[in-house]
Amino acid sequence: MQTISAVFAYTFKEHLRHKAWLSAALFGLVLLGGAIIVSALGADERARLLLDLGLAAIEAIALVSTVFLTVHLILAEIESRAIFLILTHPVRRADYLLGRFLGTVAAVALGMAGMAAMHLLLLSLYGWWEPLRYAAALGCVLGKTAVMGALSLLLSLALTSEAAAMSFAVFLWMLGHFSSEMRFLADRSGSAFMKTALVAFSHAAPDFARFNYRDFWHQPSPGGEWLFWAGAYALAYAAACLALSVQLFDQKEF
Amino acid sequence: MKGRWLAAAAALFALALFAGARMRRLHEPRFPPLSELKAGPFAFQDAALAAAGFRAPAADLAWIQLLQYAAGSLPEYADHAGHPYEHLSTLSLRVTRLDPSFHRAVLFSAGMLAWFHGVERPDEAAELLNEGMRRSPDQPIYALYLAAIAYQKQGDTGRMIALLESSFDAPETPSTMKAILANLRQSRGEHREALALWERIRASERDRSEHARAKAKIAELRAILSKPSPRAK
Amino acid sequence: MNAIRFQNVSKIYRRSHLGRVTETTGLSGLDLDVAQGEVFGLLGLNGSGKTTAIKLLMGLHHPTKGEVETLGRRASDVEVLARIGYAPESAYLNKTLTGRENLRLFASLSRIPRAAVEKSVEEILAKVGLGKAMDQRLSEYSKGMLQRASLAQALVHDPELVILDEPVTGLDPLAIKEVRVLILWLKSKGKTVLFSSHDISEVERVCDRIGILSGGRLVKVMKQEEWRGKTDALETAFTAAVVRTDGVGPIRME
């Protein structure tokens, strides 16, 4: 635990001192400002627009920062050889990866929390106040962010090219929102091969479409049990990606 | 020992699949398939946002474009001469295809088509409402508007107005519809009722332009009501 | 018990590019024991296998063949790293953190109890002359200061075995003298020191034994008695033993 918390602490600090994190946080606030301006055009639906666009801005910034930070997370340490000094201490590689990952997710979560506080304040000024549902939507955004972070980390270790890892991460993000479509197509497909391939893809890709609480906010909302399973899904999927990352990382030489 | 992380990954992935199946069983988001978004000049905008997981914001932007069209400033959907609001249905269906819970888009357009002065296309409004009802069967206000259109066709304006007024304070009722109702009352010479409606609009609406309009109408109606009636002379 | 043991160790690097696999020998059949309390110098030209040997000791590389042991445990066992201090040829430290934060990180990673971390950090930073600069970020440090910080991280947990990769390369004469004093101080404390160098004069001043590596093979091992008091004995032995393997010919100025 001491190792994980030490790696976590330095990763967290490193991100907060990085210009990219600060720029992302500032850009997030600009996007929130944009949401206020755009929502002013929404007439009767101003509160809805402010809610949707604000949450979308938070998710977009969280996603971009997570993919960017996690893709560089290990590769940059290998490049700068800072990893030499870490791994020549009694640090299991799994602990190192977990500490780095959690530190990154925590840094992104802190940025999200700052944006969310600002967003909630704006919404409350407009007379909107549903903090529990808001927390549930934000939790789902964090779940997606954690899954994307773990996936990007895995891709960066598997592909060892930052550009390729980022492109694949974005592709998987898209694919994750097509999970229902893929199942729909599988049902309609006459070919057994296509059916199997589509079902396999729909299960292997992260099921982000069903995770979009902020997207189906205005529809009948799911209950606490759903939130529990959503949390379990995000944790298990992210942990599976991390376990695969450790498998790859264990074999690496520096 | 070499494959222990691989085994852990497989077990965790199986757990994720199980949790995902439970999620699907407990809740199913009601979104039409992406293939429905393929038509129109904004198809790329809609499909790109939906594919990236931003359907609700895409519907919000479509709503703004619908309002721009209604205000006469959306070049992609210009009306032919003599066909006011000919694309209103298309644009509101676009909103509901992106997010079927965006009821106000359907109600706004149906209200405009059925009751806005000079438009009067109740059949088109009914068609739109039926489509809205098909997508969101548990939304009662669509049926109420359909019933109001039926009364309108029968010439029973009184019952039509009474029915529409019953949904006046419903959160989905568009402010335009409220204004239409108040104007209908006024056109029937029911100034007190019209004034009461405008006062409710002023009390409930947060939109600045609606507020200003309500204020002006209240002043106008108060002036009418303060004049002695011809019978009193 | 030996502090270090290489038993018939070979390391072959395999690189594949567009389906073409190339193999390079890093080390070949290395047999070497370093006793506890000994100062051992690894001498060799560039590419002779010095850094490969050190990376195998630190678990950064895995041997293709043979066994590597440190302090009686296999080098791949991360637990043994708590008893080893390692400073690479350059200070691969995290530049976004301060000197104190870096040392705090390495102290925690080395399993120093939480309560003792702060004291150990301040003590070692004062010893390497960074007492006044410990709260500055490493991005503001000079090269000499970075080298001292790197040495501090290797020593913060009071290791039994200290491994220094090219510790005097690129240093000014004053700093070289300080490193020499440090190695002799470690020896006086009964620590085992293994270091690699090109600098024959430095090696002969501090080492109990030396090993000459050439082309990945240990071609000669000498004891202090074999060069002490004999002018140029080590240099003569070195030039006679090594063969250039990097394809570079000698400089001829006739």
Question: Would you mind describing this structure in some detail?
Answer:
The complex is a heterotrimer of chains A (254), B (233) and C (254). By secondary structure, chain A is an all-alpha fold. Helices cover 80% and strands 0% of the residues of chain A. Chain A has one domain (2-177, 212-250). Chain A has helices at residues 2-16, 19-39, 46-80, 82-87, 93-125, 131-159, 162-176, 179-188, 192-204, 224-250. In chain A, helix 5 (93-125) packs antiparallel against helix 6. The longest helix of chain A has 35 residues, at 46-80. By secondary structure, chain B is mainly alpha-helical. Chain B has two domains: 39-173; 179-233. Chain B is 67% helix and 0% strand. Chain B is built from eleven helices and no strands. In chain B, helix 5 (103-115) packs parallel to helix 7 (140-154) and helix 5 (103-115) runs parallel beside helix 9 (175-187). Chain C has a domain at 76-159: Rossmann fold (3-Layer(aba) Sandwich). Chain C is 31% helix and 29% strand. Chain C contains seven helices and ten strands. Chain C is globular. Chain C starts with a strand and ends in a 13-residue tail after the last helix. The chains are: A mainly alpha (254), B mainly alpha (233), C alpha/beta (254). At the A-C interface, helix 1 and helix 4 of A face helix 2 of C.
Assign the structural class of chain B, choosing from mainly alpha, mainly beta, alpha/beta, alpha+beta, or little secondary structure: mainly alpha
Order of helices and strands of chain A: HHHHHHHHHH
Number of domains of chain B: 2
Mean pLDDT of chain B: 90
The number of domains of chain A: 1
Strand elements of chain A, count: 0
Name the poorly predicted regions of chain A. none
- Helical amount among residues of chain B, as a percent range? 55-70%
Strand content of chain A: under 5%
